[in-house]
Amino acid sequence: MARFLKLAATAVLFLLIAAGLAVTIIPRFLDRIYYRGPVSAHFDGQRFFNPDGEDTARVPSGGSRSGFFWRFLTGSDGRPPWPQNVAVTPSVPARRVAGDRMVATWIGHASVLVQTQGLNILTDPIWSENAGPLGFGPRRVMAPGIQFDDLPRIDLVLVSHNHYDHLDTSTLKRLWDRDRPLILTSLGNDSVIAQAGVSAKALDWGQRVSVRSGVEVIVTRNHHWGSRWFTDRNRALWSAFTVRLPGGNLFFAGDTGLGDGKWPREAASYGPVRLALLPIGAFRFAPGQLESGSHIGPPDAVRVFHRMAPERALPIHWGTFRLSYEARDTPPLMLSAILRCAGYDPSRFVSTRPGVPVDVPSVVQRQPGGSEARIDECLRTRAVRALH
Question: Could you read off the pLDDT of 30-43 as tens digits, one per residue?
Fold first, then answer.
């Protein structure tokens, strides 16, 4: 009996030591240093931050972070059901689109193929079935609107940040092996991409790179955060992109909250925006909630649309992976209701089915119309409240 107790005490001591070591070692192991560089207005020498105020670290639904993730993972948070699968008819895009004509095809989530000036541009490409590490994470409910093998040769890839639903290393590896595109991202994410044997060029906010004569990409500010393993939070930068083009600029918002709301006009200062790719989903993390510090939902997306004044905006970041509490079709329905209520032309910011090519009209430098001041009033209307 004494021998058994001694063995049991030794086992307990071993477990306690192992637990202590795990608490000490595992977070350090999961942490990564993706970038080293000088301190700046949004980098403290260790981690990046939002210079317009940090509201992305708080638990979006209130309460504890562990409780939030447990309720989310177990589906015990009162979320409305999503379909298991959404029917998609994939399309086969043109190999090239020449001249000033611009064609945009939403593939799903934040992945969009934009074709113009003979260039094929792809944003945050993800063809994986799950958006998470090691094949786990939210499952795709909507197949890509273009099958990977039907993609034309890709010239330029824009990667906004390192969350798994935006930086998909397996897809980037397939693109790199097939096409060797120019992959542009923000500081530190090139380190993550390099782990897959893929080369990317990383830039800071405000920096730019020439793609060819008359075409350049500017990395621009947005309002978000980055992480692959929780403990590596904000070791790499997040960003939006402005692609300056002869026929009018392309703006890709990436993944963003509203923050101080000044970044849309900052991006528009580089020239008229012909097409803006703006997220509208993953904005509700508690019943009735309409915003998150990390994401813009339909109300803030309309504010961005007003301040940027693009010729056309395409809603992205909805309906592909379930990342939050709202029903799958709430984001486009709410967007349409707010646009109409506030007096905007809804045809300039309308959702499309994945795989459907959209011809983007030329820039005529007209204002979007409508009243930003009426957006809050519109949130109280019956049509919008029904979607809360």
Answer: 668 999 999 999 99
